[in-house]
Amino acid sequence: MPRNRQEIDREDKIEEILQAAERTLRRAGYDGLSFGALASELHLARGALYWYFPTKDDLFVAAAARVFAEALSDPPHRAGHVRRITWAVEQLAILEPLSAALHDRARHSAGAAALERAIQEEMCSRLRDLLRGRIEAARLNDVADAIVVFAQGLLAMPLDQAERAARLRFLLSELVPT
Amino acid sequence: MPRNRQEIDREDKIEEILQAAERTLRRAGYDGLSFGALASELHLARGALYWYFPTKDDLFVAAAARVFAEALSDPPHRAGHVRRITWAVEQLAILEPLSAALHDRARHSAGAAALERAIQEEMCSRLRDLLRGRIEAARLNDVADAIVVFAQGLLAMPLDQAERAARLRFLLSELVPT
DNA sequence: ACCTGAACACCGTTCAAGT
DNA sequence: ACCTGAACACCGTTCAAGT
After folding, report:
1. pLDDT tens, B40-87?
2. Residue B47, CB, less than 7 Å from strand D?
3. Which of A33, A16, A11 is nearest to A24 (CA)?
4. What is the structure's pLDDT at B176?
5. Do B149 and A146 touch (CB under 8 A)?
6. Whole-number Å distance between alpha carbons of B114 and A95
7. What is the pLDDT of residues A118-174, one digit of tens each?
8. Which of residues 35 to 94 on B have a Cβ less than 7 angstroms from any strand C atom?
C-alpha cells in the first residue's frame, strides 16, 4: 500500500509534507509542529520525515517562509502610506506567535536567522519605495529603519489592533511630513 | 540525611530553589531550566519541586522576575536622557533571550503575561519621569509610549550594540527637542 | 507537610533492518 | 533511495506510597 517509493518523486513528496506542515503551523504554532503528529497525518513513520528535513528547524523554517510570503503578498493597491504600513503590521500581527518562534529559533538555527533577516529587509525595502517621494533622500534610510524597528516593537508587545494603529499613526505623524 | 522536613521552613526552601533557578536561567535560558536538572542540583526528586512551584511557568516567572529586577536596578545617576535610555536598552538586550521566552510563555501563562506588562509599564513610567521637564505635557505620554515600543523593537531585531544605539539616537533626535 | 520513585504521554533524533 | 519500528535520552506532570 505505501505508494511512496519511486512512484512519487522527491519534490512532490516535499511539497506534500510542506503543505501539511504549513497547515499545522497555522493551526497549532511551532509547539504544535511535531514530527510525530505530522508523520501520522501523512501515514508515515516518524523517522521517515528526516529523509526530507534533517531537523525540526529545517522543516519549520521552510514552512514558515511560505506562511510569511503568503501573508505579505498583494498589499493594498494605491492606498496612502499610513494605510499600507498599518496593513503590513496587521498582517504580521496575525502571525505574531510565528514571528516569536522564528526569533527564538534564530538563536540556534542559521536558516531561521536568515529568514528573519530576509523578512525584515523585505519590509525595509518596501518602506523605502513607499516613502521615497515623500521624504528627503538624506533621511530616507533612517526613517525606514526606524519604522521597521517600531513595527517590530508593536508586534512584540501585548497590544490590540486599535492600540497598534494609534501608536503607529503617532510615529508616522512625527517622522513623515504630511 | 534529608535535612528538609520541618527543619527548613517553606520560605527558605523556596528561596533556595529560586536562587538555583535564577542561576540556571542566566546560564542556560528557558530551555535549560528543567525540573530534572534543578532537582538533581538541589538533591531532590523531580516531583518534589512541584510542591513549591505547581508549574514550570510559575517557576520560570518567579525566577525571571528577579533577573529583570536586578538588571534594571541602579540606573546611571544624573546622566543625560539619551544615555539613560541607552543604558536601559542595553540592560534588556543582555536579557533578550529571556524576554523572548517570557513573551512566548505570556500566551499560555497569566503570570508570564502579567510580568511582561509590569516590565513594560515600569519602563514607561520611568521614561515619563525622565522626559517630563523636557517635553510638552500633551506629547509626553505618546512620546514615552513610542520610545518603549521602539526599544522593544530594537530588542526583537538581530542588531548589535552599535546599531541599536544609532537607531535609538535617531529616534530620540526626532521625538525629543534638544 | 514534604519527599521519593515510578509511571504517563510526549518530544527530537538516530539507526539497524528491510524494500 | 526511501521507509519502518524500535531505541535513546530527554521533557512536564501526576501520583501512590512513604516519613
Report:
1. 999 999 999 999 999 999 999 999 999 999 999 999 988 899 999 999
2. yes
3. A33
4. 93
5. no
6. 22
7. 999 999 999 999 999 999 999 999 999 999 999 999 999 999 999 999 999 999 999
8. 43-48, 51-52
Three-state SS string over chain B comes to CCCCCCCCCHHHHHHHHHHHHHHHHHHHHHHHCCHHHHHHHCCCCHHHHHHCCCCHHHHHHHHHHHHHHHHCCCCCCCCCHHHHHHHHHHHHHHCHHHHHHHHHHHCCCHHHHHHHHHHHHHHHHHHHHHHCCCCCHHHHHHHHHHHHHHHHHHHHCCCCHHHHHHHHHHHHHHHCCC
Q: Is the CB of A41 under 7 A from strand D?
A: no
Residue of B nearest to A148 (CA): B153
- Whole-number Å distance, CA B9 to C1' C9? 34
Q: Under the phi-then-psi rule, with left for phi > 0, alpha for psi from -120 to 50, and beta for the rest, what region is A30?
A: alpha
pLDDT at residue A6 in the model:
57
List Cα–Cα distances, B142 to A10, A49, B132, B168, in angstroms: 54, 50, 12, 16
Q: And the C-alpha cell for B78?
A: 544624573
Closest CA to A100 of B121, B106, B71, B123: B106
Question: Are A155 and A85 spatial neighbours (Cβ–Cβ below 8 Å)?
Answer: no
**Cell 528557558 belongs to residue:** B30
